[in-house]
Structures are given as C-alpha cells and as structure tokens.
Amino acid sequence: MADGSHVVYVLECADGSLYTGYTTDLERRVAEHDAGDGAKYTRGRTPVELRYHERYESRSAAMSREYEIKQFSRTEKERLIGLE
C-alpha cells in the first residue's frame, strides 16, 4: 500500500449519530455506507456524511486509532471532528 493509504474515518448518520471505521479506499467505503451496503450500524441510518478522516502508513496504526476513537465519548468525538 502507498503511504497514507490506511484511513480512519468518522461519519455522521442521518439520525445524528457518529460512526467510526477503517478503510483503504475512503471514497468507495463512504459510497458503500451511503448506499446501505456498509456496516450494519449505518444501513438504517442513511444518508451519511463524512465528517473527519486521518491517514496512516500502516494498518496496525490505523486500527489502533480506530479503536481509540471508538472509546471516545460523544463529546470527545464532536471535539475531534470540529462539531463543538
């Protein structure tokens, strides 16, 4: 994979909830979520909007960051993505 091809992202769902995920193809993955073909969580919450992403050089670094963000409170996630 090319440098920075591992991406952690945060989506805002139609119901206002936030979803955090990992991918190597951000555009494709967001389109999958939006079409209802992404994660089970986002299927009933379309449309989704990409609110934030970070790029990493390794899968392990990205997966660690995804886990870290998923542990955040709603307030911490809002601060991260600039909603606060």
TrEMBL record:
Transmembrane segments: none annotated. Residues 4-79 form the GIY-YIG domain. Gene3D superfamilies: GIY-YIG endonuclease (3.40.1440.10). This is GIY-YIG nuclease family protein. SUPFAM superfamilies: GIY-YIG endonuclease. InterPro entries: GIY-YIG_endonuc (IPR000305), GIY-YIG_endonuc_sf (IPR035901), UPF0213_domain (IPR050190). It comes from the Archaea. It comes from Natrarchaeobius chitinivorans. It holds the Pfam family GIY-YIG. CDD domains: GIY-YIG_UPF0213 (cd10456).
